[in-house]
Amino acid sequence: MSHAAHPAPRSLAEALRARDDVSLAALLRSRPDLITPVPTDLTQLATRAGTRASVLRALERLDRFALQTAEALAVAPDPASYGTLLGLMAGDAGDESVAAALPRALAALREQALVWGDDERLRLVRTARELLAPSPQHPSPTGLGPSVQEAASGMSPGRIQEIVTAAGLSSTHDAVSALTALTALFADREKMAELLAGAPEPAREVLSRLVWGPPYGQVTADPATHLRWLLDRGLLLPATPGTVVLPREVALHLREGLAHRVPEPLPPAVEPAASHSPQVVDATAAGQAYTALATVEELLQDWDEGGPAVLRAGGLSVRDLKRTAVALDVSEPVAAFWVELAYAAGLIASDGEADERYAATPAYDEWLERPPAERWARLAEAWLAATRTPGLVGGRDAKDRTLATLGPGLDRSAAPEVRHRVLTLLAGLPAGAAPDAASVLARLRWERPLRGPQRDTQQGGEEDLRSRLARWTLTETELLGITGRGALSEHGRALLGTSGASGPPATSAVAPLSPLSPLSAGPAEPVGPGDKLPVHHHPRPAAGPAPLSPAEQAVATAAAGRLLAPLLPEPLDHVLLQADLTAVAPGPLQRPLADLLGVLADVESKGGATVYRFTPASVRRALDAGRSAADLHAFLAGHSRTPVPQPLAYLIDDVARRHGHLRIGAASAYVRCDDDALLNEIMADKRAAGLRLRRLAPTVLAAQSDPATLLEGLRAMGYAPAAESAEGDVLIARAHAHRTPPRTAPEPVPDGPPAPDATLLAAAIRAIRAGDLAATAPRKAVGESAAASAGAPHTAGGLPRTSSAETLATMQAAVLTGESLWIGYVNAEGAASQRVIAPVRVEGGFVTAYDHTADEVRTYPLHRITGVAELAED
User: Fold this and answer.
1) Residue 245 domain-assigned?
2) How far apart are CA 205 and CA 212, in angstroms?
3) Rg (CA), the chain
4) Which residues does the annotated region (Disordered) include (predicted)?
5) DSSP at 640
6) φ, ψ of residue 696 in degrees (nearest 5)
7) ∠559-560-564 over CA atoms, to 5°?
């Protein structure tokens, strides 16, 4: 079916109707809220595209120059020509860079249905004009005041004639023509220059203070001479009692035609701050990636027997976060990052028990069994998609409550987009180049300028959320090993699906970005036939890779893991024992070796090499876990590249000799020992007074405390007792790994409706076209159709009304002729709709027809059809 473009659309609906399917797909892709749910026709689509919430969302996703273009249209006449818009953007001097970039910005506004009409009649959507246009309460973002016509609308005709005469114009017969003449004077550059040449110097200073906004000023009841000079000539007009305003036309003359002080047609370039060898960057990033894995493992081992308690409001307490930071030997913000990352990856969760605590999930055990590169890839993938923002921890929410780690209120839907965009900007730099953070923030602010009073936040003021997200991203990429020394690594590039590219994209650093990136699902499509710019259109530059779909991201992350794998250090099967009761692990250890060594010794320092220290308590811990002295000697001899030092062998033998000499069981509690002299020593020790011991027999002491308290008390006194069971066997103390029930990782909070895929777009456009056909298909005029000739008129746009006999006769005739009909239909729920159908068969009180609206063959009961009308021929 033909969708020819109307030469001059009279509404946004008509402009959308003139678009082809490719252009409609571009609109729905850039504004996915418009198809949630799918509109019934193009009129409903246009209505939805003009709602305040949808327009505001679209404006907030424009880049700075596209937003400046929309702001210029908001203060331009409605409609405005392309030449008028170009004058407002480029000024009298005609900035060539602005002239070259304006078609792209205008095409973006048209694509998003914020602007419609041809180059001679450009119209900004009325809702956008209301959101951007000036008013006394909300000054224009361009700093321009109302026009002369608007500002003088409440003035008396006599006062208007006085102003016209003082300005050097002839008086007119009415106020309307007088204001028209005054407007023309202010728009004439030569005449305005002559008028202002006679202005007193203080008057010029007043104009210079108001010219870039705000355009309002205060005056007294008896203004000074220079103010009176401006008021008499209409260069300042009264707004409210005691307030004057600089008319728009006067400001534009003083600005040399510019709507904005500084038009920004091109995005600021991301500048490199330092440059390193790509090999050094990759090696540094790989080392940090290994540290990231070790830190997450250490965190989960610390919580292996049950982590911190869950606060009643959710999350970790400040004290538990501090304790975790000390255990990981990092700052509290960094500890919050690792905890949140493990949570986002589904490795920790709440156990859901009565005494609710955080603990590792069963997925953690599966994660531990994977190769290091795969474990890192899972962390990186979770980080990219997570909307939880650990940088907010410690801040305050809207109700002035502290935001806690793992607590509510940390989700920010913009986080994944900002992370992807920062990585894309880093990928645009030469390999090995680390960016200047300030230039990254400036680029992001150009791509998504804030609207409102904080839009142009200056350095030292409160940063907007996107800037803070970008700063946190630069820090987190370094912690996670995506960057090394600030530069994006090769496996970091692979996360974007751009691994193997030689050098930065051609347009990534200097070409203007599409306002639809970085959220568009693909490259923007060209505008439709009714909206293209035949004279001024320029191709829109590439804006870098768009965010990947979840399936594509999984593939890219796996590729990043494969690139990282050769750079990670190979686990070692040996340590170096030293005479000072320490062992040095010169690199990562194989898991069985690391696990047993972690029981037998305490970690003293971490870094490129890990230092373990053997102490009586650590050796006793290994003996309590069921190891014998012979086992420990064999273990150390088999995994040390140096001989076992004699002091270490003596330490193991000494602790083993005393281990279990005292035996503690449950009576309430008792101590038994074959050496009664040792029991006498304990009874005489003043430190044992708190245990309240009493001798029952020469080799048995009874205590009123429980066995655990008695065990710890005697160990604190320097003894090495062992717990025993009711049968008299030594109890082996093994670590109890506490796990939560199966848990899924937290779902990211979406930033509005998801971008539609190609299948949904095709189906939505087909449904909208069909619905629009049903709503706008031409009907035969009265006297041409059988229904009309029988005296059953119908109104345009309403449901047709015909009798049952007339409906049946028209259906049967259409079956024979193959024509399409317009019908009104009421379903079983009582919802009325209009459809275009092509009847195929009529029998048994039903009509079987091809429904153009649903794009399928359907059967309708005749008694539910309210009426039928023939369609006029095209």
Assistant:
1) yes
2) 13
3) 39
4) 133-155, 495-553
5) B
6) -100, -30
7) 120
Q: Is residue 855 part of a domain?
A: yes
Burial 142-167 (b: 16+ CB within 10 A, else e): bbbbbbbebbbeebeeeebbbbbeeb
pLDDT at 268: 94
What is the rounded CA–CA span in Å between residue 280 and residue 825?
Answer: 71
Name the residue type at position 652. Answer: I
Residues 807, 822: Cα–Cα separation, whole Å: 11
pLDDT at 280: 95
pLDDT at res. 139: 57
pLDDT at 506: 34
Q: Would 763 be classed as within a structural domain?
A: no
Out of 658, 679, 696, pick the residue that ends a domain. 658
Give the pairing type, strands 433-435 and 272-275. Answer: antiparallel
Q: Provide DSSP, 457-523.
A: PPTTSPPPHHHHHHHHHHHHHHHHTSEETTEEPHHHHHHTT-TT--SS-TTTTTSPPPTTTTT-SSS
pLDDT at res. 400: 87
Are 647 and 668 found together in one domain? Answer: no
Q: How far is CA 279 from CA 275, 282, 431, 433, 478, in A?
A: 12, 5, 10, 12, 16
Structure tokens at 264: 């920004």
Residues 604 and 697 in one domain: no
Peptide bond between residue 748 and the one before it cis (omega within 30 degrees of 0):
no
**Same domain flag for 649 and 669:** no
- The answer to whether the CB of 736 falls within 8 A of the CB of 306 is no
Instruction: Tell me what pLDDT residue 655 has.
Output: 87
Range of the domain at 866: 777-870
Q: What percent of the chain has pLDDT over 90?
A: 34
The domain that contains 858 carries what CATH number? 2.30.30
Tokens of 671: 């101590």
Q: Is residue 427 part of a domain?
A: no
Our count of domains for the chain comes to: 4
Largest Cα span, the chain: 128
Give Cα separations from 537 to 62, 101, 123, 230, 672 (angstroms): 19, 10, 17, 43, 95
**Regions of the chain short of the pLDDT cut 50:** 1-6, 136-137, 452-462, 500-543, 734, 781-797, 874
- For 33, 49, 130, the CA distances from 126, given in Å and listed in that order, are 19, 11, 6
229 in Cβ contact with 239 (< 8 Å): no
Res 429: pLDDT: 94
Residues belonging to the chain: 874
Instruction: Indicate whether 636 and 678 sit together in one domain.
Output: no
pLDDT of residue 725: 67
671 and 654 share one domain: no
- The tokens describing 320, both together, are 């538990």
Do 667 and 607 lie in a common domain?
no
**618 and 712 within one domain:** no
Q: Give the domain-ending residue among 688, 703, 723.
A: 723
Residue 612 pairs in a beta bridge with 583, 603
Q: What pLDDT is attached to residue 452?
A: 44
Which pair of structure tokens corresponds to residue 16?
Answer: 């959308």
Confidence at residue 872, expressed as pLDDT on a 0 to 100 scale: 59
Burial of residue 340 (CB within 10 Å: 0-12, 13-18, 19+) is: buried
Instruction: Verify cis geometry, omega within 30 degrees of 0, for the bond prior to 861.
Output: no
How far is the CA of 95 from the CAs of 89, 258, 406, 574, in angstroms?
8, 10, 52, 70
